[in-house]
Amino acid sequence: MKNSTDLSERVKSLLDSRLKLERVQGKHVIVSVNAKLPAAQRGKLLLDTEKQLRKMLDAKLEIFLEPRGDLNKLRQQLRGVDYEK
């Protein structure tokens, strides 16, 4: 457990301010993006971050975005919209 906590702290210290560390699972670093970015910029940010983490910490680390639910479905439920008529 100590190694995972140490790795999480080291990852946090290297992350761009637009990224938030959600968790580390083995060699998977799961992050969320705090800023509204176009897809191309978001992709470049994630790739650059992965390269930096691999260089500084471990060559096997991989960056993943935190999965998000279907927000449209949530909005429909909140509004009471029923499209199955």
In short:
With 85 residues, the chain is an alpha+beta fold. Helices cover 47% and strands 20% of the residues.
Average the pLDDT over all residues and give the rounded result: 85
| Total individual domains | 1
Helix-strand makeup class = alpha+beta
Strand order of the largest sheet: 1-2-3
User: Could you say which overall geometry the principal axes of the C-alpha atoms support?
Assistant: elongated
CATH architecture: 2-Layer Sandwich
CATH class: Alpha Beta
How much helix is in the residues?
Answer: 40-55%
Radius of gyration: 17 Å
Low-confidence stretches: none
CATH third-tier fold name? Alpha-Beta Plaits
Q: Report how far the terminal alpha carbons are from each other.
A: 52 Å
Please report which band the strand proportion falls in: under 5%, 5-15%, 15-25%, 25-35%, 35-45% or over 45%. 15-25%
- The H/E string reads HEEHEH
Write the layout of secondary structure elements.
Layout: H1 2-14, E1 19-25, E2 28-33, H2 39-56, E3 62-65, H3 71-79
Parallel strand pairs: 2-3
Antiparallel strand pairs: 1-2
Architecture overview:
The chain has 85 residues and is α+β, with helices and mostly antiparallel strands. It has one domain (2-79): Alpha-Beta Plaits. The chain has helices at residues 2-14, 39-56, 71-79, and strands spanning 19-25, 28-33, 62-65. It has a 3-stranded mixed β-sheet. Strand 1 (19-25) and strand 2 (28-33) form a beta hairpin. It is elongated. The termini are far apart. 11% of the residues are buried.
